[in-house]
From TrEMBL:
It comes from Paenibacillus plantiphilus. The chain crosses the membrane at residues 18-38, 63-83, 104-129, 149-169, 176-199, 224-247. It comes from the Bacteria. Keywords: Membrane, Transmembrane, Transmembrane helix. This is ABC-2 type transport system permease protein. The lineage of its organism: Bacteria, Bacillati, Bacillota, Bacilli, Bacillales.
Length: 253
């Protein structure tokens, strides 16, 4: 297992798509903060602090994570089915469950890194330009730790979903296309179905897609916090097991 993890981490470190996505996200975050700072200063308005940027960044960061992972899954995981690498790995003597587990863990690590870039850049640049700031009714350290932990959990949950798609379709284009369409429209589909079927509306409140929009809230009750933490863990385990099951029975050409 250690050798599999080292191999996957090496491939991730050398993967140009991974680094390109990080650079793009970092550039977008930096540009937004700098341009906002210049605009506010020219208008003589009160500057936005680092923590203010952070509290407003989670919604946009969710979309960044989903889009980036959709692309990464297609060009990092699914592409190995097309170029013959996966067939070589599958015939290496390692069990397929271990192979899939190693790939899932590494793309989960990539998801955590990607999920950190946007908010960290916004917080750091905002702090350098306008100060760190403070939050009403909650410790800044507590908020940072809680929001970071939840962000990592949801990034891993999304990673397990795109890893599942890459295993099902085994094609870069299909994986990217299906993943993007799924993440872009799943909220609308669930909302529409929920208006006709109350049970769907109830279930939607326990899916990672809707809950991921709540991780940046300042004050979260303990029962809600438990739900926010438990749902992505269950989602990660569920899609991880489904992906491993499909991969173990898949004919790899």
């Amino acid at each position: 297992m250690d050798n599999l993890l080292k191999s996957e981490l090496f491939k991730l470190r050398k993967n140009r798509t991974f680094w390109t996505l990080i650079i793009i996200i970092l550039s977008l975050a930096a540009s937004f903060v700098v341009l906002t700072y210049i605009d506010i200063r020219m208008n003589g308005e009160q500057q936005v602090t680092g923590l203010d940027y952070l509290t407003e960044t989670f919604s946009g960061n969710n979309y960044m994570i989903k889009l980036a992972l959709s692309i990464l899954a297609g060009l990092f995981m699914a592409s190995e089915y097309m170029n013959g690498v996966m067939k070589t790995i599958a015939s290496s003597g390692n069990s397929r469950v271990r192979i899939y587990s190693a790939k899932l863990l590494v793309i989960s690590f990539a998801a955590i890194v990607i999920s950190l870039v946007f908010p960290a850049t916004m917080l750091t640049l905002g702090t350098l330009l306008s100060g760190f700031g403070e939050l009403p009714g909650i410790s800044s350290v507590e908020y940072l730790l809680r929001s970071a932990g939840l962000t990592f959990l949801y990034a891993m949950a999304f990673a397990s979903i795109v890893a599942f798609f890459s295993t099902v379709f085994s094609d870069s284009g299909q994986t990217i296309g299906v993943s993007l369409i799924f993440f872009l429209f799943i909220d609308t589909v669930l909302y529409t179905l929920g208006s006709y079927f109350p049970i769907i509306e109830t279930l939607d409140n326990y899916f990672v897609f809707k809950l991921s929009m709540e991780i940046g809230e300042l004050n979260i009750a303990n029962d809600v916090l438990f739900k926010l933490a438990a749902v992505p863990i269950i989602t990660y385990m569920l899609f991880g097991l489904l992906g491993a099951w499909i991969f173990s029975r898949k004919e790899i050409k």
